[in-house]
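Reopening: structure tokens for the 5-phosphoarabinonic acid complex, inputs below.
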Amino acid sequence: MEKPNTNVSQASRIISEISRDPMGGWFDLPLKFNVQDMARLKITAQKIQANSKYLVCIGIGGSYLGHKAITEALKLNSPTKLLYVGNSLSSRELNKVIAEIGDDDFSVLVISKSGGTLEPAIAFRIFKKKLLEKYGVDGAKQRIYAITDQAKGSLHNEAVANGYTYFAFPENIGGRYSVLSTVGMLPMLVAGVDTVKLLQGARECREKQLAPENLERSALVNYAFTRHKLYTSGAKIEVLASFEPSMMYFNEWWKQLFGESEGKNEGGLFPASVIYTTDLHSLGQYMQEGQRGMLETFIKFVAPENYVDRVVIPQIDESLTIDANGKNKFLTLDDLQIVTGKTMDYANDVAMEATVSAHDRGGITTVTIEMRDDESQELITERSLGFLIYFFEVACAISAKLNGVNPFDQPGVEAYKNEMQRIFRGLPTEEEMEKAKQEALKKSKTAGPKAKKPAQPKEEPKKPATPEKPKDSGVKITA
Ligand code: PA5
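Re-run output (same inputs, fresh job):
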């Protein structure tokens, strides 16, 4: 990889800007997570574990992806299983969750900073009804937990009115940067995540990567500047690649982080993701020979000395291959001699090495972030994930600022929401309004001098042209 032209003084100025940003509340979390908040979260998590087989987590975007990323990536052990709804409008998915709960005990955790997002609001209504039917008014109130704005919004008002246990969604933290805050902590504690280790990893990242004396060789800062350099020289896409399937939701979190933070002013690298080696057999061809102008960022987990999941590719003993009569033979013709006796991790590591090398030669810029946690016997640990979360949050904020955009807003997300409101309310589109205005003007002109009252464009149109069927500019195929 070429040197990214990291400008240390620029990096240090941007980092200081991020730390002082009104939406930069996440920046110091690894150092200063409020001890009292954590104690209250732990007590709440224990209560949920004691009385609920399931915790239905309701939220969308930053209000669920972070904690889902962590809980899916780890191997956890908790009496309470997290289930997710309110992150789509699919009744099919909702019904699957209802079916899984069956007659078992459950509680509901609803997370929405604004308190008014449609997808979680609908799911919450449905699960409120279920709680009321099963546990009655008092019981339902005891089993609803809310994380929302501390002063305003419909969810806040309802939480106060009904006396739900509720926690403030920090005002100075946006959804996609919220995983290490109360927002991620409560569900993660319920799921059995070691949040101390998670914060330790984030703190180690902060201390190693952002110490002023380390900035020049900081992998985090170099990564942010590399992205920016590639972007300004024409790259269009960044692909995050992992060789562990349980990192799928981490990829989803990462895509949201970068997509919502950088996709502005018709710019930003498009964030995509793959899980290898699975996707080498689907997208591998495209990665090798498709459109260039891509950055591929690999996350490599190095197995610690005493890794518990080490699987050796076995020799099949001859004694097993002949039946008792010595007649019926079992043949193994798989040509695996070159890996027999080696571990699957060795094969996975070789696959990664080969992929990086092949993609490099195919004209893709590759970056590899290597994680190894020798304090554990696991491959993917809270400590490593905390490090990665913080690494990408800061890198993303720096990179967005290098691109000249605000990493902490998402004005574009409102467009579809406004369209939904318009359709729900049967209002005309802007184009229909404009057309009606032009027609009214035309009529007033052709009516000649006798026309006493020209049409008032402001009041037009009274009736939407086709309220129930919005016009579609795209191609629609109905099968
Ligand atoms: O990152 C973000 O800010 C968004 O993805 C929000 O988390 C998402 O839109 C959900 O918003 P809310 O928490 O207000 O329901």
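The beta strands are 54-58, 81-85, 106-112, 144-148, 165-168, 237-242, 270-275, 294-301, 365-371. The radius of gyration is 27 Å. Marking as resolved unless the reporter disagrees.
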